Protein: Beta-ketoacyl-[acyl-carrier-protein] synthase III
Organism: Xylanibacter rodentium
Amino acid sequence: KINAIITGIGGYVPDYVLNNEELSRMVDTNDEWIMTRVGIKERRILTEEGLGTSYMARKAAKQLLRKTGVDPDTIDALIVTTSTADYKFPSTASIVLGKLGLKNAYAFDMWAACCGFLYTLDTAASMIESGRYKKIIVIGADKMSSVVDYKDRSTCALFGDGAAAVLVEGTTEPELGLRDSYFRTDGKGLPFLHLKAGGSVCPPSYFTVDHRLHYLYQEGRTVFRYAVTNMSDDCALIAERNGLNKDNIAFVVPHQANMRIIEAVAKRLDLSMDNVMVNIEHLGNTSAATIPLALWENENRLKKGDNLIFTAFGAGFVHGASYYKW
Ligand code: ACO
């Protein structure tokens, strides 16, 4: 049996740091509110004009190729997961593939909001386990600053930009890699978290621009409630059916939307925060990039055989948890 494992990680975050102090000069907010309610001190923003999500995805993938030393000609597929594609079409993955000069690969995007990395990693793992593909690059990347209204204090503090890439390959070593996933999509999420205009229902027009309909809309309190319940339940379920508990879980790697959601998940699993990977304080919510960026930043804390649980929740609503043995 072939198991799918992550054999390398690359990451990229833009240089520009937008901290709470600067935000409080843009909207009526303050560091104390943001830290106690959300747990974010600063976030990175891609400020250079003309650069989009593919730029960050390419930077992350380049670092991945350099670190692993893998021959780019041996890559079979490249999948980008994002909610902030460079264009409606072509796919962001096709742009990244072109810039990387991959000669023997095909590329496509997957959309699953903040669950994008989990769903895509699982898809890539199934492709590897099938034996038809040997090396797949999965990239979680989002330029959330491109859809955030910096006049809306209820959302502008929450998000940041970033990208991370992983190489997924096969091994015949037993028990390693992506072991199990529990995913669900609850199609009732649309009213609570969406971007109103720019799609086929409400194409862009002077009206949509005048009414600021091209920005992320969120009913924060409802989303918060759903996120806590679903991420906690999904982790508990994946732990139970794989015999995982506080004594044998090395790390939970949760989607980073709110520190209070992350703490609730840790509490449900009876884990200390030392066993939770957190990057929300300095990166904010980078959507599809939160989980791979957390792995990238904490790579040196991971040991072979460590039991990890990944969990996420996002627009749709989408949610789930995966069990990964490092
Ligand atoms: N600074 C100061 N005050 C603020 C700010 C701010 N930045 N934002 C909101 N407030 C005010 C509100 O106006 C409100 O004031 P009012 O009572 O006078 O009306 C008050 O604070 C409380 O607002 P709530 O929205 O109820 O605050 P809450 O404690 O729920 O926190 C938050 C809001 C942080 C958005 C929280 O609800 C949350 O984290 N939700 C989940 C986010 C999430 O998980 N998103 C999913 C992933 S995103 C994706 O998929 C793309």
Observations:
- The longest helix spans residues 220-241.
- The chain has a mean pLDDT of 98.
